[in-house]
Amino acid sequence: MKRLLCLALGLLLLSGCTPAVGGDGETLQFFAMDTVMSVTVSDGDAGAAEAVQAMLYELDSALSRTQENSEISMLNISAGTGNPVALSDTIFDLLESAVALSERTKGAFNPAVAPIMDAWGFTTDEKHVPSDEELQKLLPLLDLGALKLENGRALLTVEGMSVDLGGIAKGYAGDKAADLLSDYGVSSALVSLGGNITAIGTKPDGSDWRVAVRDPKDQESYLCILPLTDKTVSTSGGYERYFEQDGVIYHHIIDPKTGYPARSGLQSVSVVSTSGTVADALSTALFVMGEEDALELWRASDDFEAVLVRDDGVVLVTEGLENGFEFLGDSNGYTYEIIRR
Ligand code: AMP
Ligand code: MG
Fold first, then answer.
1. Residues lining ligand 1, judged by CB closer than 6 Å?
2. Whether 281 contacts 166, CB under 8 Å
3. E strands of 55-110, at which residues?
4. 284 C-alpha vs ligand 1 centroid, how far in Å?
5. pLDDT digits (tens, 9 = 90+) for 151-195
6. What's the average model confidence in pLDDT over 61-75?
7. Which of 168, 174, 147 is nearest to 158 (CA)?
8. Mean pLDDT of all residues in 147-153
């Protein structure tokens, strides 16, 4: 719990897949939810960043699939027993949001993907390609109809089902952090939670926070810079977590229809929204859906914008991001197109 950095930030490169270009502030950096996190606070009460850190540690423990007595483990262990599990308001709320976003994305986002993640060994250090037979057997466990949420309690009605909120939790945590910082009188802050960056207010000088999106093929380079005020940007890409077997790369974003890593023609997807929860779940979902379905969902929605990086190096940027957008991908051979409604 100590401040690791206290500096005037010129160009701040935060961990995660979307580093940030920040303003003046104090930065607290720490490790939680399997990633490096940082909270940069420009004003408000002392202790605000530490309060966010404590909240994130708590959320991390509640969501852990490895700690046996976490709320999510209790829910997963009880699958098929018929005994509902009482959850904290936070975890219940997050599960409800996850189910709603699964419905909205026609199942491309699926918080019950855990059995498939486990079959691929993504939760352990023994990643491997499971047999097709094993995957086909597990797919019925992804049916969210068997997750019952009622009066603060959750029940998985089928044995073997389990929930993994890794595709939405950091964005949700960004929303919680923004609420907490506001309680502490903070009006200008940047919260970076491994690939999810939440901008609170503007930079102290009144200009937008500027957040860089990484080149999915070259972690040292940036594809573009997005201006952000009171918004979250979440990035999903196969390059974040993967392994190689027999010359083939297998990454951690699963197509719930097939049980295999999604191969939709996209290298990465960034979603910008006033809701971190929406941004995070949709970045995962749009990556699974691919260009056509992703843009169809964007056209039918008014709560998010997106950057889709196609396998062929074309970067598709929805028109709501055009203002202040800065393209940096030329030197790595990318081109970009603004997508209109
Ligand atoms: P993200 O980096 O936000 O795209 O989340 C990826 C993580 O979400 C993975 O490591 C899994 O824990 C989980 N996940 C993988 N595939 C899906 C999916 N189709 N829907 C929801 N969560 C997923
Ligand atoms: Mg996500």
1. 109-111, 113, 117, 164, 166-167, 195, 236, 240-241, 252-254, 256, 280, 283-284, 288
2. no
3. 85-86
4. 6
5. 999 999 999 999 999 999 999 999 999 999 999 999 999 999 998
6. 95
7. 147
8. 98
If one residue of 142, 164, 213 were mutated to test the ligand 1 pocket, choosing by the most ligand atoms within 8 A of its CB, it would be 164
The half-sphere exposure of 281 on its side-chain side, counting CA atoms within 13 A, is 29
- DSSP secondary structure of 245-305: ETTEEEES-B-TTTSSB--SSEEEEEEEES-HHHHHHHHHHHHHH-HHHHHHHHHT-SS-E
**Strand order in 35-41's β-sheet?**
5-8, 24-32, 35-41, 189-193, 196-200, 231-237, 266-273, 305-310, 314-318, 335-339
Return the ligand 1 atom nearest residue 98 CA.
21
Centre of ligand 1 from the C-alpha of residue 167, in Å: 4
- 50 CB-near residues (< 8 Å, 6+ apart): 1, 28
- The ligand whose atoms approach the alpha carbon of 241 most closely is 1
Question: Has residue 1 got a pLDDT over 50?
Answer: no
Q: pLDDT at position 24, please?
A: 58
Task: Compute, in angstroms, the gap from residue 32 CA to the centroid of ligand 1.
Answer: 17
Alpha carbon 65 to chain centroid, angstroms: 17
- The answer to whether 142 touches 162, Cβ cutoff 8 Å, is no
- 242-245 and 231-237 as β-strands: parallel, antiparallel, unpaired? unpaired
Q: Whose CA is nearest to atom 3 of ligand 1?
A: 167
What pLDDT score was predicted for residue 240? 81
Q: Which atom of ligand 1 is nearest to the CA of 288?
A: 19
- β-strands 335-339, 314-318: how paired? parallel
pLDDT band at 271 (very low <50, low <70, confident <90, very high): very high
